[in-house]
Amino acid sequence: MLENYLIIHKSILPEYYEKVLEVRHLMDSGKVREISQAVKQVGISRSTYYKYKDYIFAPSDISGSRKAVLSMMLDHTPGVLSALLTRISEAGASVVTISQSPPIRGMASVTITLDISDLSVSFSEMQERIHQTAGVESPKLLAVE
């Protein structure tokens, strides 16, 4: 998983990167309930937050990772969820929680929390396998703990 990341001292990065983390902290802590309120409080635009929110993590968010939350869309076709779960299991991850919305226009939104402490492949490899699973679209990493 870490092969897709760089460690860069924040002093050389634009200030808004750290502000994206501040917005996430405000939302996660419950101090602020809406994104628009949080971005206003830290002084960045909503578009800046949404552009970078899935790509900026504090070191504590990824070092020693044990849990990951993924979101994706699944075709409402028999066997797609089963194939996805098989790919996850083959990579050595375990499902902690899974939430699936009712299908709308043949697609269902799925959010999965995984225990990734015993992966037999890199996290990036598991993500690639998930992405290649027939019927799985737009897999995104939402959080790592």
Protein architecture, described:
This protein has 2 domains: 8-56, no CATH class; 67-144, 2-Layer Sandwich (Alpha-Beta Plaits). The chain is globular and about 45 Å long. The chain has a 4-stranded antiparallel β-sheet with strand order 2-3-1-4, covered by helices on one side. It has helices at 15-29, 35-42, 46-52, 59-62, 80-90, 123-132, and strands at 67-75, 94-100, 107-115, 136-144. The mean pLDDT is 89. It starts with 14 loop residues before the first helix and ends with a strand. It is 38% helix and 23% strand. Strand 2 and strand 3 (107-115) form a beta hairpin. It is α+β, with helices and mostly antiparallel strands and 145 residues long.
Per the principal axes of the C-alpha atoms, what is the gross shape?
Answer: globular
Helix content, binned percent = 25-40%
- Residue share in β-strands: 15-25%
Please identify the structural class as seen in this structure. alpha+beta
CATH topology of the largest domain: Alpha-Beta Plaits
DSSP helix count? 6
Quick one: CATH class of the largest domain? Alpha Beta
Give the SSE string.
Answer: HHHHEHEEHE
Report the CATH superfamily of the largest domain: ACT-like. Chain A, domain 2
Mean pLDDT rating:
89
Multimer state? single chain
CATH architecture of the largest domain: 2-Layer Sandwich
> How many runs of DSSP E, i.e. beta strands?
4
Strand order across the biggest sheet? 2-3-1-4
pLDDT < 50 stretches = none
| CA distance, first residue to last residue | 13 Å
Backbone CA Rg: 17 Å
